[in-house]
Each structure stands twice: as C-alpha cells, then as structure tokens.
UniProtKB/TrEMBL annotation:
Swiss-Prot/TrEMBL keywords: Glycosidase, Hydrolase, Signal
Top-rank taxon, per record: Bacteria
InterPro entries: GH, GH39_cat, Glyco_hydro_39, Glycosyl_Hydrolase_39
Domain Glycosyl hydrolases family 39 N-terminal catalytic as annotated: residue spans: 95-524
Protein name per UniProt: Xylan 1,4-beta-xylosidase
Active-site residue list: 201 (proton donor)
Similarity section: Belongs to the glycosyl hydrolase 39 family.
Keyword Nucleotide-binding: no
Record's signal peptide: 1-20
One Gene Ontology MF term: hydrolase activity, hydrolyzing O-glycosyl compounds
GO BP annotation list: carbohydrate metabolic process
Pfam families per UniProt: Glyco_hydro_39
Length: 559
C-alpha cells in the first residue's frame, strides 16, 4: 500500500484516531466492466457566439480540443441573430439574414463562417443551433437588441429575436440556404457528422409563441435542413427542465408531435427527429453565509427526460443530448450580483462536476437510453473582471479548477468499471435530497483501458465549508501480476488551482506579465507527489490518499 507524499502540493496530516474514524473505502474489480467510457461530457456551450474567434475564446477552444479523446461539440446561441457582431453578455449576432427594399432575402455568412471555421480548424464539431429570429423576419422586431447586465431582470433579455417568423417559408428557406452553404464550404461528409437543433428553451421566455407555433417553427426548420442535406441530423426541443417551467410536459408533447401529428411544412404525418434534447439544472442557495448546492433537481430532470424518451418505441433508441447540464441557470450572473454563485471560481465547481457526471452515467445505465452528450453551458467571457464568478471554464485566458476535471476525464479510456464505496451516496439518495448528510460523498468513476486503470475520485458535499481531509483507501482487484506504476493528479486548494494563487497575489485586476505566466501554470492539471511502483503478485493494487473536502483526484494504475 502506498501513501502519496507531495512535491508541489501540500499533504494534510491527521491523527491515527481521526484516521480510524474517517476512513472511506473505494473498491474496483478489473473484471467487473459495466459499459464503455464514452465521453458524453465533451460537449460545451455558451450564449455569446462572437467570443469564439476572439483571443481568449480561440485559446480555450484549443485547450478543449486537446483534452478530449473525441471531437468536442460546441453549442452556441444567436447564430442567426441580427446585428454587427459586437459581443456582449448574453448577446451575440451574425447578421446572416436581412432583406432588401423589396423584401427579398439577403444572406451573409461571413460571421457564421468565422465561428464554424474556428471550430473546424481545431477539429471541433458544431452542435449547430438554429436560432434566433432575424430582425427582418420577426413578428415583433422592436425592441431587438438588448443591453442586459448582471443584476438586471432576466426577462430583459427576451426581445424581438424571441418571436415567431412573419413568414415560415422564408424561415425554411433561410435554414435551407445555411445548411446548403455549410455543405459547400465544409463538405458533405463533415456536415453529416454534425447535429442541428432548433432554438433554445421554447417553454420559457426564449420563445414568445405558443407550443404549437414552436412545433411549426421546428417542422419548417427540420424540413429546410433535410431539403439541403437529407442525411443531416436534426432535433430538439432543448426545453428548460423543471416541473414549474413545464419542460417535461413540453418534451412529451414534442415527441408526440414528431411521431403522430401532421407536419406543418410537408402536410405529412410526423416530423424528423434524429436527436432529442432537454436541459437540467441544479439550484444553489446562500445559507448562513455559505453556498449550499443542490444537485437533486438536476438529477431528477435528467431521469425524467430519459424516461420520457424511453417511453416511446419510436424514440427509445434515439440519441439524447442534455443541451445544458449545470449547477444552476445563468452563466453570466456573477457572484457580486448573485452570491449563491460564489462556488464557481474554486474547487466546489470541480467536485460538483465530477460527482454529477458520474451520476449521469448511472442514470443512462439504469434506464438503458442512448445517451450521447451532456453540454456544460460554460465557456469564457472576454474583457471581464478577473475571477468575477461567472460560470466559465477560464477567466482572461487563465484556466479555472473545473477545467481540470475535464482534463482528468479525457485521460480515462476503455471500459467503465463497477465502483463500490462505504461513503458514496446512492443515485436515489442524490435524486431525492442531493448530498446533505453528515458525511461527504466520497465516490469514484473508474475505467479500464489497455494496460491501465484510471479512477476519478472526489470528496463532495453540498455545503461549501472547510473540513478535515478524508482518508480514502482504494483497492483494485485482478490487476496483472506485474509491477504497476501509480500516478496521481489532484485538484484542491494547493493543486491545479489558479484561483487560490491569484488570491495569494492579492487578487490583482491588472496582473503583471510574470503573474499571468504564473497563473497560466497554476491553471494546468498538476501531478500530486511522485509516481510509485509496487508489485501486484496477488492481483491487488491498493493506495491510501488524503483528499480534502471538495477535492478531486485522478489515480492512474499503469503497467
């Protein structure tokens, strides 16, 4: 048994008595495979499409492409929104569609191409969102551009771009011309590998029409996609989750429409749906001066969405994408105006992400659905204060701790393994009441690749409070009888954490060149201690680690 000792990162010591009281166990059997380690997590998104080709946006996209074993998928709003391309919070535009004095369509793909060109150059694939309504097509075009800022009412965002088209034939032709242009620019084979989806959260303010009007919007858009490329993949409805918002009722009605209703565009029965999408969010709150997360509503919405899709024979095997899967709803609401979002800069966001992604695998396994993707609605915000508390992966080009969770996931390959542990909350417990008990959730996600086993390990609790580090004993059975090297990577307050380094600098809003370089290094995933080699003649590998609350570790056994 090996106990890791630090080189760069600090190891916390506890007494023998505390060791006995707080020891958690994680057990993995190399022969107990439960499914593929498919990277559904390699999907990301954001509101502001024009950030894509800006300096920090390009840098982050390159990092995402590098960490994933498969092509990353990107979903962004406002790809058809009218405007001059100026980037702003919860806003973006491409001016893809205008009309001349006679009302004839004028198409301009320059900015849309700039976005997709950036993706394709990096090997990233669009999860192409068909929206929002161009000003010249909107039934209620004025006011059109909003100037929302953190602290404003969320309803201020929903302006002329959220309304139905004044002419559905022009809407269908716009979609047809866009897809046709993409085929001409990027090639048929490339575009066949994309997914197209219609609109965003039509059950709330993003859509100012009725449910039936959305179905009409969808039918015409899907018809335009298929008319341009019959082999293209298109779907929806990207509803906001939550029982109070009616998302699952809307999802159910949408599937019924696609199966059995008369298609508004073709007059035939049914509408094509190659991917089904919905959203799921948690609900953090500020309690007694600290942030308390709530994973339960996010897990319940995913469970309910999976069940609805699986309940129809026609859609049971249809790929599912959770179009936004996050700890809460507003990425651009910083912690200054929304104190409950103060979890975003540090390790709380990291441990929550690790623990929730593991539960998404469990949900898909338990319900037998074709789970393809889960979009983390988090990217970056250009020209904003350092560590402002946005829900983003990087700030001013500096990676946040949460990005390192995805780097860890990117190192996991092969088959997922069954994990048991004496401190890991059950899926039912998380769905019922989140992770609020006396004990923290100490769990793991494990995978077996060629000549390696990887374990993503976390110590998570909803309450963002400091606590004694927990001792975790890890056992891996049926390793080959050969020397095994054990390497650990870590995210905590001392490792892979640019935020803590920035605070120790005095939280500068204008860091020096030397400080920026130091922060860039601190933001990368760091090894924890020296790799250790041990014998496995008995077929058993073991390790004991001390993992701080809200810490995440990746253990790699290789031979």
């Amino acid at each position: 048994m090996k106990i890791f000792k630090p080189i760069i990162c600090i190891l916390l010591f506890i007494s023998a008595q505390t060791f006995a009281q707080q020891t958690a166990t994680i057990n993995v059997n190399l022969n107990d495979k439960i499914g593929d380690m498919y990277p559904f997590w390699a999907w990301f998104g954001h509101d502001e499409p024009n950030y894509t080709y800006m300096k920090d946006g390009r840098k982050l996209l390159g990092e995402l492409a590098a960490l994933s074993p498969v092509p990353v998928r990107m979903r962004v709003h406002n790809l058809l929104t009218s405007g001059d391309g100026t980037a702003a919070l919860k806003w973006g535009s491409t001016n893809a569609y205008t009309e001349d004095a006679d009302g004839k369509p004028v198409y301009n793909w320059r900015l849309v191409d700039s976005i997709f060109d950036t993706y394709i150059k990096l090997g990233i694939k669009p999860y192409a969102q068909i929206g929002f309504m161009p000003e010249a097509l909107s039934t209620h075009p004025s006011p059109y551009r909003h100037y929302w800022k953190p602290g404003d009412s969320y309803d201020d965002v929903f302006t002329g771009w959220a309304y139905p088209p004044k002419d559905y034939d022009k809407w269908e032709e716009l979609v047809y011309q866009w897809v046709k242009h993409c085929v001409q620019r990027y090639g048929r084979k490339e575009v066949e590998s994309w997914y197209w989806e219609v609109w965003n959260e039509p059950n709330i303010g993003y859509w100012k029409g009725t449910m039936k009007e959305f179905f009409k919007l969808y039918d015409y858009a899907a018809h335009g996609v298929k008319r341009a490329l019959p082999t293209a993949h298109v779907g929806g409805p990207e509803v906001a989750g939550g029982s109070s918002q009616g998302g699952m009722k809307f999802l159910n009605a949408f599937i019924k429409h696609c199966i059995a209703d008369t298609n508004y565009a073709t007059g035939k029965i049914g509408s094509p749906v190659d991917v089904i999408s919905f959203h799921a969010k948690g609900q953090p709150a500020l309690v007694n001066g600290h942030v308390r997360m709530n994973m339960a509503p996010q897990i319940r919405d995913i469970r309910e969405g999976f069940k609805i899709v699986a309940s129809y024979p026609e859609t049971r095997n249809t790929p599912i994408v959770i179009g936004e899967s996050d700890p809460e709803g507003c990425a651009a609401c910083g912690m200054a105006t929304n104190p409950s979002n103060a979890y975003r800069n540090g390790t709380m966001y990291s441990s929550y992400t690790a623990a929730s992604i593991a539960r998404e695998y469990q949900l898909a396994d338990s319900l037998g659905v074709n789970f393809m993707g889960s979009v983390s609605w988090s990217f970056e915000f250009e020209n904003q204060p350092w560590f402002y508390g946005f829900r983003d992966l990087a700030t001013n080009g500096i990676d946040k701790p949460v990005l390192n969770v995805f780097r860890m996931l990117g190192m996991m390959k092969g088959k997922r393994l069954k994990v048991s542990g004496n401190n890991m909350y059950t899926l039912k417990a998380v769905a019922d009441s989140s992770i609020r008990g006396k004990n923290t959730d100490i769990g793991a996600l494990a995978a077996a690749g060629k000549k390696e086993v990887t374990l993503l390990l976390w110590n998570y609790h909803d309450d963002d409070l400091r606590d004694t580090a927990r001792t975790v004993k890890i056992r891996v059975d049926h390793l080959p009888p050969t020397p095994v090297k054990l390497t650990q990577y870590r995210i905590d307050n001392e490792c892979s954490n640019a935020y803590e380094v920035w605070k120790k600098m005095g939280s500068p809003q204008q860091p020096t060149t030397a400080q920026i370089k130091q922060l860039e290094t601190a933001g990368q995933l760091q090894k924890y201690g020296k790799p250790a080699t041990f014998s496995t003649k008995s077929g058993v590998g073991a390790a004991t680690v001390l993992l701080p609350r809200q810490g995440v570790a990746l253990l790699k056994f290789s031979w």
